[in-house]
């Protein structure tokens, strides 16, 4: 099982950061066919072969995900997409 672990600092208010994380989740959901929901300041997402969380802190965002064998073969491109969306939203 492959895993993704990404940390990203941010300088936004929690309200702005939460909106940005929501946009990241929407992009990921559209691209990879996943569902997401909030649990406090954490956004959980899951889909076929993937399960993860985006933990929103006051100064950082932490993305973790577990990929099954098939999705694990595409870990590089999936991770690159997540980085791209985080860069777009958090600069």
How would you summarize this macromolecular structure in one to three sentences?
By secondary structure, this protein is of the alpha+beta class.
| CATH homologous superfamily label | START domain
Number of helices: 3
Which series of helices and strands comes N to C?
EHEEEEHH
What general form does the structure show?
globular
Domain count, please report it.
1
Broad structural category: alpha+beta
Secondary structure: number of strands:
5
Overall pLDDT: 93
Give Rg in angstroms: 12 Å
Strand order of the largest sheet: 1-5-4-3-2
CATH architectural arrangement:
2-Layer Sandwich
Per DSSP, what share of the residues sits in E-state strands of 2 or more residues?
35-45%
CATH class: Alpha Beta
Biggest β-sheet strands, sense, barrel? 5 strands, antiparallel
What level of helicity do the residues show?
Answer: 40-55%
CATH topology: Alpha-D-Glucose-1,6-Bisphosphate, Chain A, domain 4
Cα(first) to Cα(last) distance is 30 Å
Low-confidence segments = none
Description of the molecule:
This protein is α+β, with helices and mostly antiparallel strands and 91 residues long. The protein has a single domain, classed as 2-Layer Sandwich (Alpha-D-Glucose-1,6-Bisphosphate, Chain A, domain 4). It contains 3 helices and 5 strands; from the N terminus they run βαββββαα. A 5-stranded antiparallel beta sheet has the order 1-5-4-3-2. A hairpin with a 2-residue loop joins β2 and β3 (42-47). It is globular and about 35 Å long.
């Amino acid at each position: 099982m492959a895993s993704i672990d990404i940390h990203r600092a941010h300088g936004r208010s929690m309200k702005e950061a939460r909106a940005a994380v929501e946009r990241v989740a929407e992009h990921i959901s559209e691209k990879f066919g996943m569902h997401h929901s909030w649990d406090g300041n954490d956004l959980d997402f899951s889909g076929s072969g993937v399960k993860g969380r985006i933990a929103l802190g006051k100064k950082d965002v932490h993305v973790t995900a577990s990929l099954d064998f098939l999705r694990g073969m595409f870990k590089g491109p999936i991770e690159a997409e997540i980085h791209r969306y985080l860069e777009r939203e958090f600069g």
